């Protein structure tokens, strides 16, 4: 398939630059794959749109303040995005104007922290700091890694709003944004209706948000991301599958975790930690996920390709056009879809 098969036009004013005034106030477009029908709702309607016994699977990874700024020898400010910690002092990073960031170049960060580029991995760099940096340092000096289509600096409010209410395990360089719609009140209403919840962890990195640069999508290689599933949550998901209750993934990262961890021969999920570079695009056969709650995704992204594998590509793109016509807000801070 061609990359352009996943293109669509979107007016700039529909790209949400801020979250809704209150969490959980967004709109919800519901797609029925079999009937090829659409209906318009709000996030608060979700409990009534699901059935008792349904199981929602959330990604509980927590976004770290992974964007930091260093000063080079020439005095200019350079942005780095921390992707993966290799050891207490060394990180894989994405650097601003990557080609200029050469081996041996040194930078000074807040709190007199110094670092040197000690390795190159394609468009990524290995940055070694002169002392370990931890979550406490990042909380003081780092910035929320808002995506580039949000054209503003991060604010203190983003520290809360670009984070799910159930985030528990630090490690993501971007939010699992489908989960941003859920409030404690909504989760309680879902439980009252008999809808169960389970949690997996996938730390969002380049595998999720790196653009596809090959004209033929099958040539795209996904970067590896780490995930984990514990015994209690794996058993809960397996029980739902065995009882033929719907497993509803909240977000594409939950989809990729479930589909990567499923052992088809055993009919079970692999427990513990793992890594995935799974690339899901049209033609893929889903093994675990029966329905999907997700945001609207950027053109030509692997996320849009995953959603187009779950429902027919033309149906998805038609639905995106209708959402745009109806004034839905798009991308990380925008509205949501439920695909059943």
TrEMBL record:
GO terms for biological process: tRNA queuosine(34) biosynthetic process. It comes from the Bacteria. NCBIfam families: PRK00147.1, queA. One of its GO terms (cellular component) is cytoplasm. This is S-adenosylmethionine:tRNA ribosyltransferase-isomerase. The keyword Phosphoprotein does not apply. The keyword S-adenosyl-L-methionine applies. Monomer. It holds the Pfam family Queuosine_synth. Its EC number is 2.4.99.17. Pathway: tRNA modification; tRNA-queuosine biosynthesis. Transfers and isomerizes the ribose moiety from AdoMet to the 7-aminomethyl group of 7-deazaguanine (preQ1-tRNA) to give epoxyqueuosine (oQ-tRNA). One of its GO terms (molecular function) is S-adenosylmethionine:tRNA ribosyltransferase-isomerase activity. The lineage of its organism: Bacteria, Pseudomonadati, Spirochaetota, Spirochaetia, Spirochaetales. InterPro entries: QueA, QueA_dom1, QueA_dom2, QueA_sf. It is an enzyme of class 2 (transferase). Keywords: Cytoplasm, Isomerase, Queuosine biosynthesis, S-adenosyl-L-methionine, Transferase. Belongs to the QueA family.
């Amino acid at each position: 398939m061609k990359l352009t098969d996943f293109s669509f036009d979107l007016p700039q004013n529909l790209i949400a630059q801020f979250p809704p005034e209150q969490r959980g106030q967004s709109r919800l477009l519901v797609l029925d794959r079999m009937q090829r029908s659409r209906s318009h709702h709000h996030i608060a309607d979700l409990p009534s749109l699901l059935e008792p016994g349904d199981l929602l699977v959330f990604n509980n990874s927590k976004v770290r303040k992974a964007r930091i700024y260093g000063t080079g020898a020439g005095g200019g400010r350079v942005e780095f995005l921390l992707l993966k910690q290799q050891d207490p002092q060394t990180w894989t990073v994405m650097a601003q104007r990557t080609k200029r960031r050469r081996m041996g170049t040194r930078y000074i960060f807040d709190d007199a922290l110094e670092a040197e580029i000690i390795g190159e991995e394609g468009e990524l760099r290995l940055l070694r700091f002169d002392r370990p940096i931890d979550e406490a340092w990042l909380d003081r000096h780092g910035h929320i890694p808002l995506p580039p289509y949000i054209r503003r600096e991060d604010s203190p409010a983003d520290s809360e709003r670009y984070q799910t209410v159930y985030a528990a395990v630090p490690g993501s360089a971007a939010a699992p944004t489908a989960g941003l719609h859920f409030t404690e009140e909504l989760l309680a209403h879902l439980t009252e209706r008999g809808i169960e919840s389970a949690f997996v962890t996938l730390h969002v990195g380049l595998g999720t948000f790196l653009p596809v640069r090959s004209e033929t999508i099958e040539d795209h290689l996904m970067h590896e991301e780490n995930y984990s599933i514990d015994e209690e949550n794996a058993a809960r998901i397996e029980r739902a599958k065995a009882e033929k209750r719907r497993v509803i993934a909240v977000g594409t990262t939950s989809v990729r975790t479930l589909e990567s961890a499923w052992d088809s021969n055993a009919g079970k999920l692999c427990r513990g930690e793992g890594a995935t570079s799974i690339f899901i695009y049209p033609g893929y056969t889903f093994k675990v996920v029966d329905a999907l709650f997700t945001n609207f995704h950027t053109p030509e992204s692997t996320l849009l390709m995953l959603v187009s594998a779950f429902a027919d590509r033309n149906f998805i793109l038609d639905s995106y056009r209708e959402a745009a016509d109806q004034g839905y807000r798009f991308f990380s801070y925008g509205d949501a879809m439920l695909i059943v």
